[in-house]
TrEMBL record, chain A:
GO cellular component: plasma membrane
Membrane-crossing segments per the record: 21-47, 81-102, 114-138, 158-186, 211-232, 265-284
Name the UniProt record assigns to this protein: ABC transporter permease
Family the entry assigns: Belongs to the binding-protein-dependent transport system permease family. CysTW subfamily.
Subcellular location: Cell membrane
CDD domains xref list: TM_PBP2
Protein topology in the membrane: Multi-pass membrane protein
A Pfam family that the UniProt record links to this protein: BPD_transp_1
UniProtKB/TrEMBL annotation, chain B:
Protein's name according to its UniProt entry: ABC transporter permease
GO BP field: transmembrane transport
Cited PROSITE patterns: ABC_TM1 (PS50928)
UniProt keywords, alphabetically: Cell membrane, Membrane, Transmembrane, Transmembrane helix, Transport
Organism in which the protein naturally occurs: Rhizobium setariae
UniProtKB/TrEMBL annotation, chains C, D:
Record bears the keyword ATP-binding: yes
InterPro entries recorded: AAA+_ATPase, ABC_SmlMolc_Importer, ABC_transporter-like_ATP-bd, ABC_transporter-like_CS, Mo/tungstate-bd_C_term_dom, P-loop_NTPase, Transp-assoc_OB_typ2
Residue span(s) of domain ABC transporter: 6-237
Cellular component terms per the entry's GO annotation: ATP-binding cassette (ABC) transporter complex
Membrane-related topology note: Peripheral membrane protein
GO molecular function list: ABC-type transporter activity; ATP binding; ATP hydrolysis activity
Annotated PANTHER family: SPERMIDINE/PUTRESCINE IMPORT ATP-BINDING PROTEIN POTA (PTHR42781), SPERMIDINE_PUTRESCINE IMPORT ATP-BINDING PROTEIN POTA (PTHR42781:SF4)
Protein source organism: Rhizobium setariae
Protein name as it appears in the record: ABC transporter ATP-binding protein
Keywords: ATP-binding, Nucleotide-binding, Transport
Organism classification: Bacteria, Pseudomonadati, Pseudomonadota, Alphaproteobacteria, Hyphomicrobiales
Top-level taxon in the UniProt lineage: Bacteria
Amino acid sequence: MSQISTSAVKTSGASRARFHFAMLLPGGFVTFVLILFALALVVFLGFRLNGGNLLGDGYTLGNFATVLSDPLYLTVSLRSILIAGLVTATTVVTAYPVAYYLAFHAGRRRKLILFLVTLPFWTSYLLRVFAWKIVLAYNGVLNSALMATGLIDEPSLAFLNTPAAVVVTLAHAYAPFAILPIYVALETMPKSLTEAAADLGAKPFTTFRKVILPFSMPGVLAGALVVFVPTIGDYVTPALVGGPSSTMVGSLIQAQFGKANDWPFGAALAVSVMLLIAALILTVRSMDKRYGSRT
Amino acid sequence: MSGGAAAPGQGSRWLGAYVLLYIAFLYLPVSLIPLFSFNDSIQAAFPLMGFTLDWYRSLAGNEALRNALVNSLLVGVSAAGIATLCGVTISYMDVFGRNTTARAISAIARLPILIPGVIVGIALLILVNLAGLGPSLLAIVAGHVLAGLPTTVIIMKGRFQAIPRSVAEAAEDLGAREALVFWRILLPLSLPAVASSFMLAFLTSFDEFIIAFFLAGSEQTLPLYIWSQLRFPISLPVVMALGSVILLASVVIAGAAELLRNRGLSAGERR
Amino acid sequence: MADPLLRLKSVRKEFAGGVIGLDAIDLDIAQGEFLTLLGPSGCGKTTTLRVIAGFEAPTGGTVLLDGRDITPLRPYDRPVNTVFQDYALFPHMNVSENIEFGLWLRKIPPADRRKKVAAALDMVGMSDKISARVTELSGGQRQRVALARAIVCEPRMLLLDEPLSALDAHLREQMQVELKRLQSGLGTTFVMVTHDQTEALSISDRIVVMHDGRIEQIASPATLYDRPATRFVASFIGTMNLLEARFAGLSERMMKFDADGLHLSIPAAGEAPGLGESRTIGVRPEDILISAVAGPATTPARVANIVFHGKALRIRAVIGTATEIVIDTPRQGETSALQAGTNIHVYVRQDATCPVLAA
Amino acid sequence: MADPLLRLKSVRKEFAGGVIGLDAIDLDIAQGEFLTLLGPSGCGKTTTLRVIAGFEAPTGGTVLLDGRDITPLRPYDRPVNTVFQDYALFPHMNVSENIEFGLWLRKIPPADRRKKVAAALDMVGMSDKISARVTELSGGQRQRVALARAIVCEPRMLLLDEPLSALDAHLREQMQVELKRLQSGLGTTFVMVTHDQTEALSISDRIVVMHDGRIEQIASPATLYDRPATRFVASFIGTMNLLEARFAGLSERMMKFDADGLHLSIPAAGEAPGLGESRTIGVRPEDILISAVAGPATTPARVANIVFHGKALRIRAVIGTATEIVIDTPRQGETSALQAGTNIHVYVRQDATCPVLAA
Amino acid sequence: DGKLKYFTWSGYELPDFNKTFLAAHPDGVEFSMFGDDDDAFTKVKAGFRPDVAHPCYDKVARWNKEGLLQPIDTKRIKNWESIFPTFRNLPDIQAGDGKVWMVPWDWGNTSILYRTDLVKDPEKSWNLLWDKQYAGRMATIDAVHDTPLVAAVLAGVNPFDMSPADLEKVAEKLREQRPLLSAYTTDMTSVQQALASGALVAAMTWNASAVALKKQGVPVEFMNPKEGMLTWTCGYVLLKDATNVDLAYDFINSRLETDAGKYLIEAYGYGSSTSTAFAAVPKETLDNLQLPADPDVMLKTTIFTGPMKQNDDLAKMFEKIKAGG
Ligand SMILES: Nc1ncnc2c1ncn2[C@@H]1O[C@H](COP(=O)(O)OP(=O)(O)OP(=O)(O)O)[C@@H](O)[C@H]1O
Ligand SMILES: Nc1ncnc2c1ncn2[C@@H]1O[C@H](COP(=O)(O)OP(=O)(O)OP(=O)(O)O)[C@@H](O)[C@H]1O
Ligand SMILES: [Mg+2]
Ligand SMILES: [Mg+2]
């Protein structure tokens, strides 16, 4: 069989290096060029004075001081986290059984259901928001249905332009972002684990709680992450269906760059919110560690 | 049959019912889109006013809208493709490459999810101008790669970590270099994750418009078009017609694919 | 058996692809019994356990526990615990959490739980790994955790799928003693799959030999060893020389046979064959003795090869017209001189039990 | 050994958590040798194989192949194939694809590939499962696929981690023959981990006994069995009565010992102990014989229990002041009358090899 | 590179607006679209470089301050003189020397559109949007030059130049309004639907919405408040780095043609800046569109939404109030 020689050692090292290099290339370009540039820009801007220049002139800590000193920003951030948290919880909780069904029960129907689950999202987001407006509106589907069943006498204004509308619309919009990661995680679970739990006397719900859920936790957290973070920064949905009381921090940041023409302050606000979310994520990550990333 | 089952239990039937309900929830608002695309009124509101094909007619005549759709599909597929490629390679290097560069890249790649779209848009606009390229569909693709990347990295990393280490080792042991282990073992084993990553990255791009706004040159994407048309109520029904066409087209394509697959399958079974 | 704890009544299992896993199994297991399933790889041992535990719905037949039909009962409603062939440890729990899981389900108070976990770990000799992650354990360590996890619940019935296969002989023997202690102490009923025949023979009350999804023989170890019912069982349990022997007449209520020169005498039972008729007779390697000199009952043989087996030497030798026989002989002074090619004389021990086998 | 194929030079492996997997291992493996690793669960056998295969970078020491340092070499660049303890089959490939993978990598033409796969499957007796999905295989079937997958590549060196543990005795023996054939036919070098001592003793050229990450003894099977270097090896290999015996004087170049009445005589070697001084002496169970009547060399014993081991009976008996001894005796006429409580007389066979063990 | 780069509101790229230009330069223009001129400004500030853009009057100062514009020579604008004087003389577009920063092109009014059946005989005043009776059933436009401007007028301060104390007064007024509103929005599609369904009884809208809803038979009225409607105007600016200046002039000229203005009035219901366009539209069409035949007269009664000196501070304050601060 193959005789080992020093040249083999070298070529092996070289080809391995070549492969690693190739594998690092696309990601390296995107991260080091594009992402770091954007990141550097926002951090840099955060410390600049708003002035005639594109990127401000002079350095200051004033932007961050303003962010920290005005309780409004914290209030709005917390409100955003609350709404995003609600959205995430709703999305993940309602999506989990679907992912579970896909992973363990769908059988030959798996592809079909996956398709059915993603199909609605091929229509544009803004269209779907409008569709929700039709559902939630004063003369909308929901009000009509409630009136038809006699639950209410006159249409309610309590559906549209409320935080609840934001939660429902976003929970709908992010459904595949929760379903797919959880499905992907569950799909790797050996069936023998649920068998072992049942064998030890665990009823299905206990098996779910103590074995299946912890096993799929990386997927759940991944799903939660890709729902939670973007919803915090969302400003379109609150603007379209949320009414004044669901303004989120994304709108505030957005407005600094457009309407208020104060990029440095917008950047400082963005950096502050990013740090807040990062802190939250790190907390969640430590939870993930507890459940153990299996390798 | 989870939890081991003598019979395909009660539980699974309830679960099936739930899934049906959930799918109904997903389709509840979406099904209104085709409905109102045939409604003879600018207002998308009940009661329905009567049947019309006018909106489809103006859709047929609206080249800008069709171009926007084509652009969106192009951008979506390219951005999702690149984001998935990057997600796969970055996660691979993070999980299997075990060097600090790889780990750093993987950490950075998950950051854009934190950066507001407006900043990504502005930053990339400055960057493409610096590079002398200027805004274009290509720039939008770059922007949407950033938007989709965190999702793909998060999903792929989780999946790669779930593959038992010994499976990859067995392949190496048999003489497969890393590239081959990756192609023949890790990638096939992660196919559901790859497909999911692609799908989510595509959906992200297909709906995104703030980054797209900053990076658009003279060609726009569908969400840009729709967003800017919000001031013109008259265009909503046309957009609904377009949405309906997209739905129909995807159903037809998927149906055809399913049909072909089933044919292939039954042919295979006969053999 | 008047009142079996568990009864399989013509249980059949056909898998989705058409593979027959079990083909109409009938089996009664008594309360407190230690039953072992033996059989070649793929014969349906694991499938049998899975049907008993409730993971696999039989495609035919019923499973009765205490006379009640439990076929539709879910695994968690059966007083049965399993040690899985592939362990099936929970990867997100550490060693003690894995073992504690069943106790937690039974609402045992934490203090008792800890005590029981410690005792179980001690029993399998893994006290030092109490909070190790299961992914960091060696194969044998994993297997021991799986064993501890099933045992700690003290179920009425324990199903063990090759529970000691990854353990060294000493640990294995120790574990066998522990299992036996559970059986007598708690009256636990055991159904075990093992490939170690010594283990099966020494530990079991009864042994079930399976073949191709069917049961070949159910009997006590000694019966199985001495009086295998079929050729398959004879060749499967221990090593057995299956010799074609011609009937050479009756004498003193013993049937005399001649197998290529080897003389066999077997207590007469049933109808004797016709003179010169052929029968297959099983002779254990340890029942063939070696003599340096020719005697009235010996036949010459030529050593083909010798393998060191520890306490014995295994000798392959050729007698008569190229009939190969296997001989196990203790390593004593005279045998150490043997080597391939040596001419020896062999005979069958007088009191050996040599079964006449159905074709 | 002049020119070992593979040499481990003070190889150390400390895992992330601080667990010492290997503690300065030195090992030479000759070309074409059949080496077996034996040792208790968790002693570092798998780790040793993983270091040789290249999956685990040693935290100290070097691995040399043909005299060249291959420590930094990746697994795919080592002419070594492994049968994994947990099989590690590719779940997305069927049986034949799994086996074909290594051949495909070696750019063997498809027709040859098919032929070799068929031959390998035939060898492990799985021709009927050629296109089965690996998830639908029984434990033993999976193990055989893993074996076939490694063997089909005809590597210079095969690492086998308990490759036959899930197989029944017969298949196992068959596979042992096949492995031996590969060794002599292709000159493949084998490093195998097994817990089956009979297997280790019968198949190996040399045996390495490991303990707690260290090597206790490397020797041929017979040497290991007859002259274990340490107490650990003595108690680990086979069953050994470790008796505390007092020196009773020299006679005809034999040292006489007395262990609670049991007389032992051992060829004098080295310095004799002082009269009455104590030594630990190992005596194999099969070297203790039973006599119905008392004789000059016998000592009385009382049967404590009897276990059926198939070809032998294992008797636990008590001699002198509560010293328990283990006796293996063939099942012959007289022994079948024995039962717990019976008074017997025992003595050690004259030509038994009884090692005097270091403390 | 030969093509004019024109950055404009979505929907303002139609070929009918610049027929003569296209006749002379077929395929000579390339459009980029925006939906909001604040975003447009941001994009240009970040480095997007069109030749001609189409912001509104109130943003011109901001563009200028950032140094993005070059003056337009009115001598090269053929129809300059047919532009209503009100627009030509807007103070903040003057660049001196017969040059301007922006050539006004389209304009319209902003006011309260209300349901006549649901709001009985209201006082004709912007105060309707502060009427607690209609809490939760009103909406207003989410733009600095609309809602805060009205608030300033109602608070009695000069919207275009405010002291910090004035700003605080405006803020107070806006805070008072927030709980009464169903939405701050620029999404007229939704506002119109809500007015039609009765979910909203009054909302700040543009005049085109009034026309659309009346056409559908919804009982609405576009109020003429005593404080005055708001009038906005937008127009063309020439970017400092424009590479196709000649094309730009041709383009602006073609957009000032009578036909173009007429098409703007008839298709979108907004006013054209040229008198010739108005003259070309039949009287009853103008009536239908609630546009006067002679805008110069009407425009004397409205408030022009020009540049506000404290625009950025106001915007920041408005954002905070919307968010509940
Ligand atoms: N990844 C790891 N991290 C920490 N400790 C480990 C790891 N892998 C193995 N060990 C520990 O190293 C020791 C040696 O393990 P190894 O797998 O080599 O044992 P072994 O001899 O193969 O045992 P067995 O016969 O049970 O398979 C064990 O105590 C084990 O717990
Ligand atoms: N899910 C399945 N689908 C199809 N065939 C299966 C499935 N599970 C098992 N089989 C087949 O059923 C037969 C019996 O399998 P089983 O696992 O009971 O064997 P076993 O006696 O436990 O063997 P081993 O000693 O190798 O573990 C085997 O031929 C196996 O290939
Ligand atoms: Mg099995
Ligand atoms: Mg091991």
